[in-house]
Each structure stands twice: as structure tokens, then as C-alpha cells.
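Predict the 3D structure for this chain.
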Amino acid sequence: MKNYLLLLLTLTCLLAFQPAPPVKTILLKNITLIDGNGGAPVEHTDILIKGGIIVKVGPNQTANGATVINGQGKTVMPAIISSHVHIGMIQGNDNKTDPYTRKNILSQLKKYTDYGVTNILVMGSDEPMLFETGLRDSAVNGLLPGARLFSAGYGFAAFKGAPAMKKIYHPATVAQAIREMDSVAALKPTVIKMWVDDFGGSSPKMDSAIYKAIITRAHQHHIRVAAHLYYLADAHRLVSNGLDIIAHSIRDQEIDATLLQQMKTKGTIYIPTLSLDEYAYIYARKPEWIDDPFFKASLEPGTYETITSQTYQDNLKNSPSYQRNIHAFETALKNVKIIADAGILVALGTDSGAQPVRTQGFSEHLEMELLVQAGLTPLQAITIATSNAAKALKINDQYGTISVGKTADFIILDGNPAQDIKNTRKISAVYKAGIEVSKGPLLP
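Done. Predicted structure below.
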């Protein structure tokens, strides 16, 4: 026994005095840099990374022992942050099996990084497994492959209203809403999510007394509140009552000056999810990206066959909501331009992963394209997808820009998206905390 204890003590001492592993140093040379702060691209510059942190940005950098990457002809931008997504809700094309499994979630987190998305916020559709197993915490801390997963916990919807998900609360009274709000707060969510919408008249709308109680109680817990909404009138009432984040576009009519001023004064964040509104009708025709391998690689098995079938396309065209959906998309485009021009923080989000047709990864690139279609510049769209989205998640001290002291999350591109926003799809490599984690969804 004494010999065993002596051996154990010796091994412990040896391990204690083992030298620390060398800090990995990477030097990106001669790249064109879009740093996420909104300024013009900087050509022929370098980025020095040590231990996953950006330590220098500027031309003519040197570092002994660094792994040097020749970036001539390449553009580097910050990794994308998507502030409104869903995970574990889709698997295949039919959703007949329970998709909320650890394996499926990890697969979807990996898909996001393949598309250059390294941080996501899941908006209110998570289930207990995520928290009980520590999966959320491990993902947030970068201990798992794929995108870091921030969560809004379990969302709130109207009593007997939509959506019907496993762990969404449907409080009937203010007292019940407060109790349930307290239980979600214990999970330490990034935000609280509410659905305040009648889904085209098909569902009851949340009572104002309920959402006022949720907002008030969440703020007592120092947690912000995001709302799914559709109507300008609801946006007015919610912002007046302290809503922090509008999680979808206002789509019934153009935003007015009163609400604009109120949002600006209160610091309300706007997440337009333009791609969601385009997906609602666009498969009725043949969008130019329908056969793009970059799009097809994002689809769950069987989805491509569904969305390209004549039956599916005809059903969309003949739907009573078809024209309403087109109007909603066109109104959303107008409103995001007005809101961005007013100086209100617009952050990228897509609602990707809620349905198989809202593809994870591709949607984030499509969203930037739609922001440009709305009248914003490519650099504004990139800032919305990086710096602004980091601010929306309150992680901008670590992520969102290529700046000294930030975590080295970035995408190396074979084209300059400041010249054409579609060049964000030309992914050469994706780095998460200074480590290459993907060469994009389209492997050679």
C-alpha cells in the first residue's frame, strides 16, 4: 500500500510540473479584411492570432513559430451570428420521429459552423434535456463542436394559442405567467421569448395583461424579452410596455415615426427574419438559388424533392395566404430599411430550423442578400450579421468583430462580399476560436 501511495504521489508531482502545451499562433497574411465594424474593407493587411485570441491587426506582421496562411486573393470577415434560430425541431422531411435529441442537435450545430455561423440564439423552443444534461452550457463555453448555443429557454404563448410545442407555456392568468416566468429565469436564459400574434387569425392572441406581467417579471430577473409579432399595433403596445427585442418584422403596414422614435429612445432591437417571409411564398416559383449546391447542402433529406414538386408549388400558389405572404415580405423589406436608416439596432436572425423549408446555415446568407435587396449596403448587411447580432446577444465583448482582444471567429472567403453580398457563400475556411473547423458545406 505504501508503494502504491508513493507511486501515486510521484505521478501527481510529475503531472503537476508538466510544461503547458505551446500556445498556437496563426498569422494570416495579405488578406482583405472586413472587420464587422462597418468600415471599408482593408486590403493587404494581416491578422495575428495567439491561443484563439486576436492579438494584432495590421500590415507587415511577423511572429516566430507562427503557422502562416497566405491570404492573397482572400477576404476575411467575422463569423456570422444568428440571433433567432431553432434547433432540434427538424429531422428529415416528415418530423414523425422526435428530433430533439443530443445527436440531432450536435449535427445541426455543426451544420451552422459549416456555413460560417459560430454563435446562435435559440428562440424559446428548447426542451429540458438541453439544460439537464449540460449541453447548453458546454456549447456556450465552446466545449462542443459546432456553433455556440445560447438559449431563450421555454417560450410563452397565448392561452390555448399557437404555437403548440412541448415546453412552451400558455398561461391563463397573470399569477400563472409570473410563476412560470420565475421557473424559466432559473435556467439563466439569454432572453425570454413570447409569441404575440394571431397567426393570420387562426389563433388567439396573447392577452396584454399576460405579456405585461411577463415583461415586468423578466426585467426583475434582469432578463430581456423578445416577441414574435406581426402587426404594427402590437409593436406599439409591446414597445410601450418595455419590450426589448422585436423578433420578426412588422409586416402588415409601414412603421410610423412615433414607433421609430420610441424604439430609438428605448434601445429596442429589431430582428427582421426576412428569409422566413420569403420562404412563406417563394417555393411557389423557382428562386434562382433553388439548384445552387450551397442551398441544397443545407436541406434535410427529402426536402428538396418536396419543395420542387408541382403539388407543393401549386398548394402554395392556391393558398388563401399566398398574396398576404407576398405583401408581408414586401412590407418587411420596406420596414427594415426605414428602421436601419433611423439608427435603430438591426440584428440578423432567420428563424432557421423551425421548419425544413427554413434551412439552417443557408438562410443566414440569404438573409444578408435580402437586406441588400431592401436597400442596405453589403457592408451594412455584414455588420448586422456580425457586430450587431453580437450586441443583441450581449456577447460583443468577445465576438462579432475582428478586433484585438476578441475571440478569433472568422470566415475566409474566395470573394469580396463588399462587392457582391453573394460572395459570403464562397467559403474557403471557417475558424472558431482560432481553429479551423470547416471548409464550408461544399467539400472538394
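The chain has two domains: 2-77+404-438, 79-393.
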